[in-house]
């Protein structure tokens, strides 16, 4: 026993070193992610082994190991990176620097139809969409408020970070692009570009009007206190952790049950499960986006993940974790992120392409945000207009994802899409000119 204990300790020490160094020292974000992954993996492994040693029933082992631990394990691995992101945003706010950036960018933002004041909620959107949407109430002009509110989900919040890292990691390995870091970076750029284009289009159609004047009291520069930073970071992070141990925990149990039982309420293989039938029903809708009917019999898993992501974006990776455990026969290469391994397993089981995986990221980045953000948006939107915001999110995400998928799959479709957008732009310009003369 003593020898085995020394071996276990030695192996753990090697794994601990691998979290920090692998030919070169990793960046702080990667180190934190690796350490959290090692911690949760080891802890969850002990829990599963303990349940088995106690002689628990097979369904109980599957529920705890594959459902609960498999679902939330991948999400918890990203907590340190999210905390680091929230810390940086808190520093920008507490030093008074963010307000000055808004003032500096006012002239540039006005070219696109909003004032510099919109910069603050947009940047806050990288942390969490809920406080960012609530912050739009500081915008005096109703049109500018609507423009900003509708584009905030395009700025990837911390909850979307697991999707970016996990799916991009698998797609990068599949396409020979390394760990997928360039794919993740391009998704951030795409989100910001889509926000600009959306504002320009809305300013030319449904949200016409002059940009409101920029009036803001600039706070003095100050050194943020460590206590205040920790408080702000925790205040934002607790919503993420609360969802992990409430909504996500409940959802992973439901997903495990639906994927393990059939409509006769008896145990069934995954293809004959309740979840499979529901996913197959919705699958044709996502065919133009790359993860629909063109996939094999298991292709519905990506549809299910996208739908559960509407509850909370963390649900996407937790759904992958719960479902990937059911495809244990599929081998996966060594990937940087635990979520990427789950995505790789499902990709091999479904036959999805690298282009479709990238399109999957785009859809989840730009579609309807989580339920909490939707509730916040409803509270900040005038009565009777909220449905148009929902329709805007659905239409924009569907169109953008379809363009990304078709262009990445068949490069020549870029010419067709360019022609379509050129015609649409011409019609819009001519309509605005005619409308201007009429006025």
- By DSSP, the count of extended strands is 0
The 3D shape can be described as globular
Strand content: under 5%
Low-confidence segments:
1-10
Going by helix content, strand content and strand pairing, the class is mainly alpha
Secondary structure: helix percent: 55-70%
Rounded to an integer in angstroms, the radius of gyration calculated over CA atoms is 23 Å
Question: Helix segment count?
Answer: 20
Largest sheet: none
H/E element sequence: HHHHHHHHHHHHHHHHHHHH
What is the residue-mean pLDDT, rounded to a whole number?
A: 80
Characterization of the model:
It is a single chain. The protein is mostly helical and 439 residues long. It starts with a helix and ends with a helix. The chain has 20 helices and no strands. Helix 10 packs across helix 16 and helix 12 crosses helix 15.
């Amino acid at each position: 026993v003593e020898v085995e204990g020394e071996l276990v300790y030695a192996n753990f020490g090697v794994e601990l070193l691998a979290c920090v160094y692998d030919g070169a020292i990793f960046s702080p974000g990667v180190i934190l992610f690796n350490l959290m992954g090692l911690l949760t993996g080891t802890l969850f492994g002990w829990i599963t082994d303990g349940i088995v040693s106690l002689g628990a029933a097979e369904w109980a082992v599957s529920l705890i190991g594959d459902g609960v631990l498999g679902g939330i394990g991948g999400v918890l691995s990203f907590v340190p990176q999210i905390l680091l992101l929230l810390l940086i945003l808190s520093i920008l706010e507490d030093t008074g620097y963010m307000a000055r950036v808004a003032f500096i960018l006012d002239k540039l933002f006005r070219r696109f139809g909003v004032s510099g004041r919109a910069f603050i909620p947009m940047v806050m959107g990288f942390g969490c969409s809920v406080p960012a949407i609530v912050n739009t109430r500081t915008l005096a002009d109703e049109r500018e408020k609507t423009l900003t509110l509708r584009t905030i989900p395009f700025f990837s919040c911390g909850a979307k970070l697991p999707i970016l890292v996990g799916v991009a990691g698998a797609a990068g390995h599949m396409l020979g692009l390394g760990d997928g870091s360039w794919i993740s970076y391009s998704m951030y750029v795409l989100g910001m570009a889509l926000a600009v284009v959306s504002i320009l289009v809305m300013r030319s159609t449904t949200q016409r009007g002059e940009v409101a004047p920029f009036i803001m009291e600039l706070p003095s520069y100050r050194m943020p206190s460590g206590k205040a930073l920790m408080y702000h970071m925790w205040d934002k992070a607790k919503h993420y952790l609360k969802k992990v141990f409430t909504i996500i925990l409940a959802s992973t149990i439901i997903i495990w049950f639906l994927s393990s039982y059939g409509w006769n309420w008896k145990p069934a293989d995954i293809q004959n499960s309740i979840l499979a039938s529901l996913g197959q029903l919705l699958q044709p809708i996502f065919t133009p986006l790359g993860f629909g009917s063109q996939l094999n019999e298991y292709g519905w898993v990506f549809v299910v993940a996208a739908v559960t992501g509407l509850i909370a974006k963390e649900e996407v990776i937790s759904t992958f974790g719960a479902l990937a455990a059911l495809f244990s026969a599929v081998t996966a290469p060594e990937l940087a992120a635990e979520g990427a391994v789950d995505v790789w397993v499902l990709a091999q089981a479904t036959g999805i392409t690298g282009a479709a995986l990238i399109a999957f990221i785009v859809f989840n980045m730009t579609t309807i945000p989580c339920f909490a953000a939707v509730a916040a948006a409803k509270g900040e939107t005038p009565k009777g207009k909220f449905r148009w915001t929902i329709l805007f999110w659905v239409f924009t995400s569907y169109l953008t994802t379809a363009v990304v998928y078709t262009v990445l799959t068949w490069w020549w479709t870029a010419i067709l899409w360019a022609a379509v957008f050129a015609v649409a732009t011409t019609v819009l310009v001519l309509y605005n000119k005619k409308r201007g003369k009429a006025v």
